[in-house]
């Protein structure tokens, strides 16, 4: 039995943030029924397309293991069906712009009255405050959540990161809120509202930078390279390039081949407990006892010099050779892996973190499987649904509507354009 088997999810999500949340629930075994607009469906089905007439990878990689039903919620019959779903589902997840759900009449008060056990989970860009009515996409959240102002180099513009911490990060937060509310319901018998704002989710992931903001009141941030460079700090946490965000200084260093390979680099951490080993590996044994290098506080003003010397060593090795040598000495480090290298990595295939999925319209493609591994409920990645693939099945088997009612719904156009065959 899957961990969330028996849990029915009315998936009213679109684009990336909401779908990542419901995909996780589906991987854990929930029956996730995605409600989509007839004709177009989730807008991502048709975005960044690479194969003609096939759902985009953007869509397929965010909507595995779900069923799809088409329903026009601007059609009264469509709304009737949606309310039937509210009655039988355990969780509703949505990430529409602020106000959309209320305009549909799906207020928390009404949903709670119709199905007191239902958990209603929402993602919005911002929580209550000056921006609560704003529409938000990934990079807006990265900027408003403190990630952009603290990412990049001091002398450059703020940077967004490729990791989708605003969308997928918030989806992950919301999934935790939902399973927590499901657990609470086992005691209380009642559902509750679960909200996660993207700004809040990003800030949660940037909490070390709020830590540093407060440390600034008590003096310079000595582990930042700019301290050793003698550059004064301003009143806000600066961008720290590739400095480590933790207590053990680290940097990205060039490896053999860096002149032509944009990813011939390694992340190298000068972890204090292995400092003596680092000195031996790079050929600076006197640094083990030299008071200018022996202890961590003495090294902080000299990070540029120290990492410069370590880089002279890493440039004589490929990133993988350097990894092998450094791991022998328990020196924490990591190669900068390209997406190509990750896609080809055998061990990621073996753990199911990278999976090959077959799709009737696009053929085989790679996806990221469930990164969270449960010992008793392993995740099996199933292809994303075609638009409206399960409409009949859901009306009949989940909502248990009789033939006359289904015919009336179809005839109204609520599930999509009416073909003669369907209407007769
Ligand atoms: N049938 C008919 N209409 C439907 C429908 C259906 N099945 N599903 C949705 N709609 C309608 C809604 O009723 C709404 O119409 P109204 O504005 O007339 O009430 C409209 O479609 C969708 O609303 P939207 O404003 O959410 O969509 P958008 O494309 O303009 O905005 C986004 C997209 C992502 C900016 C916005 O949804 C948002 O801010 N969401 C919250 C934050 C979020 O999750 N952002 C991350 C997105 S991923 O980067």
UniProtKB/TrEMBL annotation:
Keywords: Transferase. The keyword Cell inner membrane does not apply. Pathway: Metabolic intermediate degradation; oxalate degradation; CO(2) and formate from oxalate: step 1/2. Its EC number is 2.8.3.16. Pfam families: CoA_transf_3. Substrate binds at residues 246-248. Involved in the catabolism of oxalate and in the adapatation to low pH via the induction of the oxalate-dependent acid tolerance response (ATR). Catalyzes the transfer of the CoA moiety from formyl-CoA to oxalate. This is Formyl-CoA:oxalate CoA-transferase. It comes from Bosea rubneri. The gene is frc.
């Amino acid at each position: 039995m899957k961990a969330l088997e028996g849990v029915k999810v009315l998936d009213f999500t679109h684009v990336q943030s909401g779908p990542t949340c419901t995909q996780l629930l589906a991987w854990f075994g929930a029956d996730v029924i995605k409600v989509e607009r007839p004709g177009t469906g989730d807008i991502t089905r048709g975005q960044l397309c690479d194969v003609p007439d096939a759902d985009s990878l953007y869509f397929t990689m965010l909507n595995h293991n779900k069923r799809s039903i088409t329903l026009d919620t601007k059609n009264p019959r469509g709304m009737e069906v949606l309310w039937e779903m509210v009655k039988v589902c355990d969780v509703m997840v949505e990430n529409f712009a602020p106000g959309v759900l209320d305009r549909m009449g799906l207020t928390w008060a009404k949903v709670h009255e119709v199905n007191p056990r239902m958990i209603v989970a929402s993602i919005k860009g911002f929580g209550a405050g000056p921006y609560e009515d704003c529409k938000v996409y990934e990079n807006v959240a990265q900027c408003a959540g403190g990630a952009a102002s603290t990412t990049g180099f001091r002398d450059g513009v703020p940077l967004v990161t490729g990791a989708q911490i605003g969308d997928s990060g918030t989806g992950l937060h919301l999934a935790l809120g939902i399973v927590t509310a499901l657990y609470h319901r086992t005691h209380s018998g009642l559902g509750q509202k679960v909200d996660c704002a993207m700004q809040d989710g990003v800030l949660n992931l940037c909490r070390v930078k709020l830590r540093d903001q407060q440390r600034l009141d008590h003096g310079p941030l000595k582990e930042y390279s700019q301290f050793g460079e003698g550059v004064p700090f301003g009143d806000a946490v600066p961008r720290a390039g590739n400095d480590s965000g933790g207590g053990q200084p680290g940097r990205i260093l060039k490896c053999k081949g860096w002149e032509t390979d944009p990813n011939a680099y390694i992340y190298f951490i000068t972890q204090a407990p292995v400092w003596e080993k680092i000195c031996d590996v790079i050929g600076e044994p006197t640094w083990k006892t030299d008071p200018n290098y022996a202890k961590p506080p003495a090294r902080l003003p000299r990070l540029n010099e120290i990492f410069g010397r370590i880089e002279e060593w890493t440039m004589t090795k490929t990133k993988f050779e350097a990894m092998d040598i450094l791991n022998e000495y328990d020196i924490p480090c990591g190669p900068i892996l390209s997406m190509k290298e990750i896609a080809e990595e055998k061990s990621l295939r073996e753990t199911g973190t990278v999976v090959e999925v077959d799709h009737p319209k696009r053929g085989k493609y790679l996806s990221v499987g469930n990164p969270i591994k449960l010992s008793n409920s392993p995740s099996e990645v199933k292809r994303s649904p075609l638009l409206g693939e399960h409409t009949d099945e859901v009306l009949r088997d989940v909502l248990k509507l009789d033939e006359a009612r289904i015919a009336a719904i179809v005839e109204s156009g609520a599930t999509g354009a009416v073909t003669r065959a369907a209407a007769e």
